[in-house]
Fold each of these.
Amino acid sequence: MKISSSTERKIIYSVLFIAVALPLLFPIGWKTDVSGYTRMAYDLIEESPDESVVLISFDYDPSTMTEIQPMAEAQIEHAFKRNQRVIATALWPMGVQMAEQAFSSVIKNYPDKQYGIDYVNLGYKVGGMVTIQAMGRNLSEVYPADQGGTPYAELPMLKGINRLKDLAWISSLSSGTPGLKEWVMVAGDSYGVPVTGGCTAISAPGFFPYVNEQRQLYGLLGGLKAASEYEGLIDRIGPATMKMDAQSIAHLLILIFIAIGNVKAYVSRRRVAQ
Amino acid sequence: MKRSFPLVFAFIVGFLVLLAEFIPHRPFNDLISTLENWFMIISGFAILLGQISLIRVNSQIIAHKEENWQYHLAGMISFALMLIFGLLWGMREAPGLLGSGESFVNQMGMKPFDYLFTYAYMPLSATVFSLLAFFIASAAYRAFIIRGFESNLLMITAVIVIIGRTSIGSMLTGWLPESLRFWHIPNLADFIMEYPNTAAQRAIMISAGLGIVGSSLRIILGIERSYLGGDK
């Protein structure tokens, strides 16, 4: 029986849809190993002093939030657990809303954390790498006020925080340019602030060279798997842990499709040879 | 004058920025700070320019009823709605021209802009990105065919990385003793990412870096003039 290319595609799409939907509806709860990259990112936050001020840059938009938003929530929660105070910035316009959502989600478990004292959202700034350079010299010049219009000097947690060098660590959660690479090149390499970050699984291979002996990048969270590993490290059953089953099944299914495709190609080649 | 002034300006500014990297003292650091502010202001105007261009291109397509003009109309309506709601009632804490839209907040739980962003833009955006999974599955079925040595190598590597990036990979070889941990699939996937991948990525990055230095010098020295929107 010959199946047309269009029918094949429909079968693949339908099977994949069911395979992804079922584990989301009925979670399996498979565990994952923690990779060295995730552990390194975790250690940076874990070993930074309590009460220190840190910065998370939301350099992504809703298209990649499935992979990156769980990382943001996990890192904020980890920082809160360590009593670290979090500054949120964004090099992408939509990053502001992503930061708002991440804080609203985490704050449910930390009702004692107060805006302006424990966390602050400074908002979006255009300019990419040049903006980071300017932040390295003077933060309040780049961000004269927070997202709600409160002047920089009136935000209690920002007292004594004048430039990037005053931060304990920076994390850029990035799905493109400007993003993690710019933070590594300016904040890490030029100003010597420890930088870690997260990105989509597809762009992770491009960032691995920065995780080196010079510590240009302190670990990397690449994709949903790394996000679920991070959730595991901070004992959080979050969105990444719940979605990881669906991703595992989808990967397995793609391998089965590849095997079927090869068998089909082999049979077709033999038929031609005969 | 029209062409030579920007060229001289680009040369002076480019040279000063370069010099300031090596002399981080007065007056260079003040100068760099001013130039950074200029850059951020100009970048802000680029957003405005992008919006004007978006309106112009889409309006022409809609006016001439070109192919698929309905989609462009939908895009323009969405753009206008977000712009109007954002301007009139603001977003999150920031108020708009007509205040903070308390009546909307009482009815919908949030401002109109935030409502559309949360319940329309976010799910639509995530859905479009998620569709990639279907295309990847279909493409993998067609493209990952064993034909020779190179395709074999690609296939084996891909299979290891795909399994290594799932919970199944951990389970499949989780029983291996400590002395054989290297062969644990997630460790193999990490090895591929850490050594062959990093080596190739570094080569690409160094080449790209050299290319950027070269093209920057061409711009500073006025050899590369395409940014002026001109001819040669």
Amino acid sequence: MTKRILTRVAILFLITLLVIIFRPRKHSPSKSNHPPTTQTPSTPPRPPVLADQMLVDFGSPKSSDQQDLESLSTFVDSVFLQIKNRDSREFSTNQDLVLFLAGKNKAQLRFLYLDSPYIDKDGKLLDRRKQPIIVHPRSQKQIELRFAGPDQTPYTADDLLWPKPIKT
Amino acid sequence: MSTLLNLKMANNAVAAGLPPDSEDRKTLVCLFLHGGIDSYNVLVPRDNTRYAEYLETRTNLALDQNSLLPLNQTPTGDGLDYGLHPAMSGLQELFNGINGNASERRLSFISNIGTLIEPVTLTEYQNDSKPLPQGLFSHFDQAQQWQTSLPQGEIKLTGWAGRLADILHSQSNKNSQTSMSISLAGNNIFQVGQTTNQFVMTQNGALTLRETGGTNHPTQLKNLALKSLMEQEYANLMEQAFAEITSQSFEQQEFVQTEFDNLADDFTGVTFPDSRIGRDMLAAMKTISLREKLGLRRQTIFISRGGWDHHGELIAPQNDMLAELTPALSAFQQALESCNLQETVLTFSASDFARTLRSNGSGSDHAWGGNQFVMGGPVNGGQVLGQFPQLALDSSDDVGRGGRILPTTSVDSLVAELLLWFGLSGAANFEQVLPNLSNFYNISNADASDPTSLPIGFLKPNSF
């Protein structure tokens, strides 16, 4: 019995010793024995924004036109719920909507980053075929989103619309 | 609710105690072009320098310079050379003079007009340092603001024609029980007042319970049931009163309808085009002709033609729509002339906004200030008024995103001059109808003998 206990204590001692020897250490340049090297300062991780979660599959092979439209519209809806004090002047075009989502809104809240893969160098939000999404201001608070669809030409029969047009 | 409101107004629709024949009668006709007409392809610079600028900006949306219909301005216009869209020859004639007679000009343009709370410069717009209309570039808000002249919004919105009726109806239509606000486009905000509302009509006249469609037609059965309900005797006083009022309403609708039907479609000697807008303009003409029988000295009429939101394609659809619109307007003015009513009716166009100067591919998008026209005998025709903007992209008139032009003339200025002609007087009344007017114009400066003293200057001298 005593022998078994002593064996277990010895094993635990050995494990603890190994952990102490091989534990990760913080890099301390001043105490380093290595010569100083030129390093790019690491970018601090940026805080996650809503688009990181809601548009994670936007434009990817995992998604589709319709799913992209749904995720984008849900995203915009979610933002609009948070920014009640808004005016169509702030998001009346594609580029203005992007700026609005990126923080140019009355609450100065950021919901996406301008270097997101679905935003081009001109600051336009693109669909999976790299066509600009069309923003159509309907009222002071609401917009319509239009994807050009597979033919990549807007205002044709294969366009995708949110909200869906009311059939009469 | 709208049915009840309509019933309430219909209840007043009966001719009673006509004013003396010597009393003047005036009608203001609002032609609302819903969707935002691309008015920089309606009124186009025609001289080589400005046309080159227009062409460079509009690219594939530019009309051919040689296709533009030349406008011959009077010396009181802005002195520049313009052409009209090639599908608008009827309006060209009204601008240059009926049958080539330059003394009978009936149409002028107001350039770069739009919704404003107060004058705004480009710097003030960019710095957000002046109050701006709510919901800029959006259909709903901008169409509404043209009709309310309250771009700052209000909790209880009324239209400027409604507020006008609140003041004028009891003054000018003393012996009439008819609403002075007639809509040929369903319910609108334009004619909603605090105490008055619009009377909705259709191209075929009033809304009645006439039996159509055969004995078993659902509408006929419904109408019969409704009439039966109205004819019952009710012990409850409220129920009885409601039944009587409703019954009277329909009797009066019938009265309006009978008078309307008594006018043949060619009663003016002018044939109106058989298009939707043509039939609307004919119905407006009939309604104007009934002013006396309805005991109205003052009347506003609201007409709407939608479909101008040409994002997808501009050139062909706008051409088709202008080709439909122009003959209807032309016939309307011609009919007024043939009935010698031309001095008593003033028509003006309005639209949500103008459109971007830059092409989005084949169409154009929502913008702001644009060009509108005023038409009628009281108009000192043959003028382009206001300040026509530079059409270069990113000019000092452009608020950005492809040529969205900052208006230099306010809707209030247009409305104020219309109301001067219509007979509104007194600074307090103008304040009630147009709360923002003093930001643009001091109404006490208006001198009927001097058009240059007026908010814009499109009225003939001594026309009010």
